[in-house]
Protein 1
Amino acid sequence: MSLKGKVAVVTGGGSGIGRAISLHLARDGAAIAVWDLNGAAAEETVGLIEGAGGRGLACAGDASDVDQIAAAAAKTRAALGPVEILVNNAAITGFDRIEDISGELWDRMMRINLKGPFLCVQQILPDMRAAGWGRIINISSSSAQGGTVAMAHYAASKGGVIALTKALAMELAPTGITVNNIPPGFVDTPMLRASPLNVDAVAASRPMKRAGKPEDIAAACSYLASEGAGYVTGQTLSVNGGGYLL
C-alpha cells in the first residue's frame, strides 16, 4: 500500500506499538515524524527508519500540551512538509481500584489519553483540509469495549477516544478525511510487561493462545492510512486475536 509522498505523524512513536506503526508506514513510503515524550527513544526509531532507507524526524515533547504540540507540528512541516496522516498513539495506562483513583490521577489519564488526541487533531487538521485528503487513526483499547478490572480511568479515557473517532468521522466525511480507530487487545509491549499481569499465562488463555504483536496493530494502521480505505470512516477495527468479538 503505497504512501509515497505522504507525511505521517505518529505520537508515542518511540517504542512498542508506536514504533511498529512508524516503521510500517515508513516502509509504505511515508515520511514519518516520530513524536514522543522520550526524545532519545524517538531518535532511535528515526534511526531505524533511516537505516532502512526511509525519511524520519524526531520530535521530543508532550503530546497533550498544546504549546509543545504546536512546536512539534511546526518542526515537522518545516522538515518534511504538511501532514496528511495522524496516528494518535501516545497514552498512559494504570491498574488502580476505583477507590484508589484520585481526582488528579483521573485527570492525568484523561488529559493524556483523550485530550491529547483532540489537541493533535486540531493542530494537524488544517493541513488535511488544505490537501482535501487525510487519515486520522486513533489507537484506543479493547478495555473500552469489554471493560477491565481496576482500569476504570483507562477504559473511560479510551472509550472517549472511540466516541471522538465517530464524531469526527461524521463531521469530516465530506472533506476527504477519514477517521478510524484501532483498539488493541493484549499486545506484548514494554507497557504490558510492566503491568501486574502474568503476560504468558494470560496469553495462553486467549483464543489464539498468544499475545498480539505491535506489528499486528501496525498492519491494520497501514490499511486505514491507505487509499484502499478511502471509503472506510468512523470504524472500530479490532485487533485482539478474538478476545472481543462484538
Note: The beta strands are 7-11, 31-36, 56-60, 85-88, 134-139, 177-182.
Protein 2
Amino acid sequence: MRDATLDAAAALVAEHGIASVTMSQIAEETGIGRATLYKYFSDVEAILVAWHERQIARHLQQLAEVRDRAATPGERLEEVLIAYASLSQDNHGTELAALLHRGEHVTHARQQLRRFIRDLIVEGAKSGDLRSDIPPEELASYCLHALTAATTLHSRAAIRRLVSVTLAGLRPAS
C-alpha cells in the first residue's frame, strides 16, 4: 500500500503539478479510503517527501551496484560518477525537484553520497590512480560540484565528457 501511494502521488504530481494534487485524488488512484491515507500521511507533501526518500535510497543502491561491477579503483570511480551524473540529469529542473531538494533527508543523502565518493577516491589514491596531495573529502566535494553541470546536459556523450574532465582534476601530477 505504501509503495502504491508513493507512486500514485508522484505520477499525479508529474501529470498535474504539485498545487493540483489532493489527498482525495491520491486515495482514489490507489483505491484506499481517504481516512486510511491520513492515518499514514498528514498531507500530499508528506507523501512526496516519503517518495523522495525512497528514490534517494534506490539511487544510492544503484551507485553501489555500479561500483561493485567495476574492476579497478579508477573504473569504479569513473562508472559511479557517470551514473551519478546521469541520475542528476534525469531528476532536476522540475517543480517537484524544487520542493523535494530541501530538508533534512536531502542533507543526510548528500553526506552519504560525499562519503561514498570520498571512499572511492581514497581507494584510487592508495592504488596510485588518483592524487593523494589533496584531502579526499575536498576531492569528493569537487566531483559532486563539478557534476552539477550534468543537469543541463542532454546526451550520454556530454555526460562522459564532463566526467572525463572531472577525473582529469583527480589524477596525480606527472
Note: The two ends are 57 Å apart (CA to CA).
